[in-house]
User: Fold this.
Amino acid sequence: MVGIERQWSGHASGPQARFAGVRTFFMLGLIGGLAGLFYQEDWVAAGTILMAGAIALVLAAYVMAMRRPHAEADATTEVAGLLVLALAVLAVQGALVIAGAITALVVLALREKVKLHRTVERIGDEEFRAAAQFAVLALVILPLLPEGPYGPLGGIRPRSLWAVVLLFSALSFAGYIARRMAGTRLGYPITGLLGGLLSSTAVTLQFSRESRRDPGLAGPMALGVLAACSILLPRVAIIAAILNPAVARALLPYLAAPAVVGAAIIAVIFLHRKPDGAEEPENKDQNPLRLWTAIQLAVALQAVLMAITFVRDTWGSPGILISAAGLGLTDVDALTLSMSKMGEDPSLVGLGARAIAVGILANTVLKLGLALTLGGNAFRWKVAVGLLAFGAALGLGLWLV
Assistant:
């Protein structure tokens, strides 16, 4: 496969041809396979000599290629030759799945050279820095934190809290990259859909204000708000599933009816396109990870967890539902995290799921209030119809379950 790709792409012919085409790569694979057989038979010296000779041939080919006039500093073919040797040995040693998978990835990477280079060119300094920071946060800091718990009311669990920080930083980063890839050509509806990955309330607030300044875009902005509200449901379900699959399963019946409404809204979004000449707001995210926001959420979550423990011990289930409605007005994600954690007690799984649904309903009421208070006239009724349908579906789910 590697040899065919090199031959087909033209790297094995012409004045700047590299050392290997389909036949040479085929024989390199055989050499690696024979070396692997020699190692299996404990003929270590023979296998080593065979591999050393093949590696020396590849290195010599690279040196000769670089000595040509106007040679490009490209070692892709030679590195691929070394990989074929290693993968052949790996396959003969019995790791067929790993060897096959890596081979497929190598061929794909070779074949998609142009697309990969274009993708890398589109990566800015901010995105690369954020990815490096996230790697440090996940691979360095997280393993060093203690498990806990420490303190009263369920205690503080540093590692679990930091995992929450990572979860929300990852969601923020994913939303940032998605907006960069989609661009502005699909208009406010797609912007709202992607912005809902971070905060549907923030999308509602922003678009409500902008609808007063540009009434001609009330329709796309309203669809953007409804898209953000629709994406809230899978976002909450995914977070709950990551933290507590039992709570997520119990939550699904509550979300079934509003999910149908949300799917209809998203279908409408993809049937509409941005009006010609309409401009969208520029992306103003300065930090793709939104790390400080994630840390604040983790701290708030710890306080919420302790408060919910206190409320449950003091007033029982009714207190939980009331506090869930209050928290849902401001932060559905913190509510989902809190109730998923509370649901670690099997007897509280159903209560946790119901509390999340109540919080989503309260959040929908808040967004309806923002749209009616801050939005322009055309924007108001369009958002109101969608959010009322959304809220009615949530209420139906709560009543039925």
